[in-house]
Amino acid sequence: MENVHILNHPLIQHKLAILRNKNTGVKEFRELVSEIAGLMCYEATRNLPTEEVQVETPLTTATCRVLAGKKLAIVPILRAGLGMVDSMVDLIPSAKIGHIGLYRDPETHKPVEYYCKLPEDVGNRQVFVVDPMLATGGSAVAAISFLKEHGCKQIIMMNIIACPEGVQAVREAHPDVEIYVAGMDEKLNENAYILPGLGDAGDRIFGTK
Ligand code: PRP
Ligand code: URA
Q1: Which residues carry out catalysis?
Q2: What average pLDDT does the structure give for the chain?
Q3: Which end of the chain, N or C, is less packed with Cβ atoms under 10 Å?
């Protein structure tokens, strides 16, 4: 599928199998979300532009490459997206971080916005929107629309688990956005939860159920 990258790296798949297990406890779940996000970040940043620089080593001059182009921003969709931020910041320490707070109304499954704080210059940055779950796609579509209203033009989305319904919704609303996922699941159930999925990501990260 165009614009959708399924990351079937063995380390990611192994960690995802443990993450899905209902017997995996809060501590391990949180660690795995973070580790998977770090590995996904490595893949999702693969095409960032670089430029040549000369570096003086203790012995001679080395021709090296460093990141070029736009600066980066990481934007988690609260709450569950927070679990993916730390490992990404470890890899990209200069990235700025924005927050978009959305929750799904339990009846309508539509996203409800409750918080938003973005870096002032977010419109000039390459943005990585992160959220472990892409279910109906309502939250992702709303978050990306919001970022575009703030001038963002280069947006990559990272989800640990997605399903066809969510991917289609994002592709229809935002065909310019590249989507990186670790697992592409089968479908949604009647409560708009992903099957087989991993349950409620926010509750499992924060231990709220
Ligand atoms: C979950 C998840 C996504 C959203 C996905 O968050 O983290 O943000 O649902 O569903 P959608 O694709 O149908 O919009 P939730 O609303 O449960 O909030 P939480 O992270 O605060 O638990
Ligand atoms: N949000 C979750 O946390 N899990 C799902 O399966 C769907 C939405």
Answers
A1: 104, 108, 200, 203
A2: 97
A3: C
